[in-house]
Amino acid sequence: METLNFLLQGFSVALTPENLMFAAIGAILGTVIGALPGLGPANGVAILIPLAFSLGLPASSALILLTSVYAGAMYGGRISSILLNIPGDEPAMMTCLDGYPMALKGRAAEALAISAIASFIGSLLATIGLVILAPILAKFALRFGPAEYFALFTLAFATLGGITGKNQVKTVVAACLGLMIATVGVDITTGNQRYTYDILELYEGVDFIIAIVGLFAISELLFFIEMHAGEGFKKVALNKLNLSMKDIIQVLPTSLRGSVLGFIAGVLPGAGASLGSFLSYTMEKKVVGKSGYFGEGDPRGVAAPEAGNNAAANGALVPMLTLGVPGSGTTAVLLAMLISLNIQPGPMLFTQNAELVWGVIAALFVGNLILLLLNIPMIGIFVKLLSIPPKYLMPVVTLVASVGIFAISNSPLDLYFMIGFGLLGYLLRKLHIPLVPVILGMLLGPEMEKSLRHALTLSDGDWTVLWSSGLSVGIWAVAIAGLVLPYLIGPVLRRRMAAAQDKDHSIVD
Amino acid sequence: MIGDRILGVVLLLLAVVYGWEAAMFPEPFGGSEAVGPETFPLILAVILGLSSIYLLVRPDEDEEWPHMKMLAELGFVLLILAIFTLMLQPVGFIPATTLMVSVLCWRMGAKPLPSVATGVGSAVVVYVLFNFLLELHLPAGLLKLSGG
């Protein structure tokens, strides 16, 4: 009952005309960002953070705007999966398997509509799950002491590569780089300067927003130029929508199953949206059995992964909001936004900033409804965006990113940093060092060091305090499993995902 | 193979320098504590050092690296961004942006005329949007001087 009251309060925040407008703007912008080639959700949200920031919006409005962008980008991403056979981000990969064949058969509009409906169901159910689960987890997390938090941060890094991660050592390297960047600046506890080399601008540390925009947006520009992808990709034409009630009813059970699986995958550390959509797809194939024609344009093959990945994306908000530990790249970017608004996520968020957090959750409901209403009739407009050639688009995106960074503090030095991070991002991506742990390291570094200090000060320098409670031993065990398991299970899972794709591609070709 | 080996060497060097500097931190005011400013960096240096040795011993397959010509191209793009930053305040937002966006479009394969059109268009639109609609002031530069 308590939760319901909070949620009602949240709706009173989200439904003010101003915030409703921000949710709508965010939903449209997000869909545009998701649909544009070369701009994933993480990238899009990252570019918009400095803008939302320099506009001086109140915290709840800024959060509502950006979570709507996040939700919208997930919707927009499937447009390129279905029409171009190019997934906007990794979780959208599974949508290509049946979405593109449907489009080739002249049912592109139906595929888009079905994926919109499935996405809506996935997000809706996962948001309900979030409402139920988050307060429980937050209450539980109040028992965490600094030692448990230190273990939890380690767990976040250990499981970030995901169960399908290729080279865990590279995840560790990436996390170290991020944490090392986080140590630059004046040490909060002692006032010592660390790695500042007497450069005044470094005293406050390196701004992670600049790092995010550089690592994601600028390196993306370099990749586009290297791939000579300036002309754009060939897309399938859109037909007139012809969707009957029967089609919708056919995919309903699929969407429900996919949502549940996706949500669980999203909440669990180390699983994430990619695994969520993969599991929903493979399970659906098993459940439907012989009557399905998966890989040849079965609508259920579109609905399952879409419901799964949207549910996982919202499920990933549970650990992010309650523990301050994001489970994916995009939630890491959302965490960056919270921290720059001076809001520390974690169990206290639900008591100290109840109005804000419930406002955002309510905005997720509203945003999803807006997205569904927007997406079915206006899909044609968003599809048109795919025809903008990247040779004009990418430079303008780079400009918007640079202006956003410049607007934070009117300092050209920030822009040089952004360019430097762009080069770094390019090199790291070429060497298969994942970028998300770098970002997460920069975000979590200060808190992680603080909990280590608190724990050891309380224990008078006794290091065994870090694994002295049952809870912390449990967290360490999961963290170690997260690092080691991918070596055992990863190759098998990866082979299956690759096999699923190869098989389907051979049918397409 | 070679990519990861070079990476391993660079990271190992970084770990050593980073850790060595941490060990050299002056003792904080008020005496040392169980965890000083150097503890966390030292842990990171050890982990990074061990990981980089692993990369040296067991490197992954290399990604295909671009040829010299493409590397020069990418370097040129970064240079354009740096020139944009350099010009931004003294020369002003509109000329700097026009230059940057036009050159980037051109380098991505657009013809010169549409490139310049995109450059001028985006510069003016973003400038107007920021200065008048969002009230965030972008540097006017020379335009301001000539405009009086």
From TrEMBL, chain A:
Protein name: Tripartite tricarboxylate transporter TctA
Coiled-coil stretches: none
Originating organism: Marinobacterium aestuarii
Residues in DUF112 domain copies: 20-440
Pfam families in UniProt: TctA
Keywords: Membrane, Transmembrane, Transmembrane helix
Transmembrane portions of the chain: 20-39, 45-71, 111-137, 149-165, 172-188, 208-225, 260-281, 323-344, 356-386, 392-408, 415-445, 465-489
PANTHER family to which the protein is assigned, alphabetical: TRICARBOXYLIC TRANSPORT PROTEIN
Classification lineage: Bacteria, Pseudomonadati, Pseudomonadota, Gammaproteobacteria, Oceanospirillales
TrEMBL record, chain B:
Pfam family, one: TctB
InterPro entries named in the record: DUF1468
Boundaries of every DUF1468 domain copy: 6-139
Keywords of this entry: Membrane, Transmembrane, Transmembrane helix
Spans traversing the lipid bilayer: 39-58, 70-93, 113-134
Protein name according to UniProt: Tricarboxylic transporter
Organism from which the protein derives: Marinobacterium aestuarii
